[in-house]
Amino acid sequence: MDTLDHIAELLRKASYAVALTGAGISTASGIPDFRSPDTGLWTKVDPMKAASIDAFLEDPIQFWSFYRHRLGSLDSAEPNAAHYALAKMEQSGHLKALVTQNIDRLHRRAGSTTIAEVHGSIETGVCLSCGRRYPHSHMVEALADPEGVPYCECGRVLKPGVIFFGEALPQDEYALAVSWAQRADVMLVAGSSLAVWPVAGLPDITMRSGGKLVILTASETPFDSRAAIRDQRPLEEILPRLAALLDA
Ligand SMILES: [Zn+2]
Fold first, then answer.
1. Among the residues of the chain, which ranges form H helices?
2. What is the dotted CATH code of the domain comprising 32-76+122-162?
3. 1-30+79-119+168-248: what CATH class?
4. 119 among known catalytic residues
5. Domain segments of the chain: what residues?
6. pLDDT in tens, 203-244
7. pLDDT (mean) for 95-102
8. Which of 94, 107, 119, 138 is catalytic?
9. ipTM above 0.95, yes or no
10. How far is the CA of 151 from the centre of ligand 1 (A)?
């Protein structure tokens, strides 16, 4: 029996399976992850300059000179077979909810609907003065001018709705993720190295409530020895096969 048959069996028996995804699920869409040697984003760009709240506050216009490229490359990426497979598993009822650390909107674009984006997303721009939120299109329109940056109508430069280093997680999204983790009898980890807190605490919450952990991340994780099933093959290969098994 292939490990995928075991995972399919677990998911068929589960009454509340939850997926937890990280950067590894989007690398096949051409979005670099953060920490892989050589290709990881933070091996090329200093995160404290590119994605910290301090850098934004210090010089928001300079900040956008980097982030406009990041937003452009995220917008041109397409969901891959792994994103579509998870959406299909939600539609077939085998997955109840999805927690993601990714800010790229690819799960939504693939059709997943019950999502907690615990690191925020590029879906909106937010004003740190008055709290107004603007749609993605507002940022894109402003950035169409090579010198342009997106502004709030109160006059302040907008921040992407992404959680940066030094910022607190969005409490409502994180509370949702915790409640799903408590309720989950299976947590399917896909493409997260479970290294970033507090998201890295979610598998513990599931296991303490008696749930099982399935880890489908290429790199090692601190939870590998406690996982019921471990598979390190490429997600865009195994998740579609898993979705097909569940459909059969
Ligand atoms: Zn404002």
1. 3-13, 41-44, 47-50, 53-58, 60-76, 81-91, 106-110, 136-143, 171-183, 202-208, 235-247
2. 3.30.1600.10
3. alpha beta
4. yes
5. 1-30+79-119+168-248, 32-76+122-162
6. 999 999 999 999 999 999 999 999 999 999 999 999 999 999
7. 97
8. 119
9. yes
10. 8
